[in-house]
Amino acid sequence: MMIKQEKQQLINLLKANQVIKLGKFILSSGRESDYYVDMKKAITDPEILLQVAKIISSMINQDKIDRIAGPALGAVPIATTVALQSGIPMLMIRKAQKGYGTSKLIEGDLKEGDRVVVVEDVTTTGDSLLKAVNAILDNGGRVERAFVVVDREEGALEKFKTEGLLLEPLISISDVK
Fold first, then answer.
1. What torsion, rounded to 10 degrees, do the Cα atoms 121, 123, 127, 132 define?
2. What's the predicted TM-score (pTM) here?
3. Which domains does the chain have, with CATH numbers?
């Protein structure tokens, strides 16, 4: 199975580039964790980005998708690389509407009824990704699939399930710890 080999290659790249760090870390939530997922290191590495794009592009190549979307900041390089790999235009979702210019929450051309794939770098609870999904839905798009490169396995999948959505991690933290 090709996808399984591609995912193992991604795991190898993440390990080789020390994206998953073991030790004692304080997370943005204020909680302590025995590992840290340094996704900024991953999303600035062209080899890792390309591997992520290959996996997601092959997983969606049978779907009729109009847009690839990524919330700022971490998912924008992922959405960009997937857009380049798949030839599907992308959207960038801001954390908040800007108060000047066009005041858009979503940058890019989202049309009513567009079928959208949303990508994210890492999920813990899934809250920020869910905000991005809701931004797409609130602006007339249809979220067909949602992918995350690394799921920390701390509730994101369950939260999406309760919302009637499927979150598809490329890898879960238990795959690499």
1. 20
2. 0.92
3. 2-176 (3.40.50.2020)
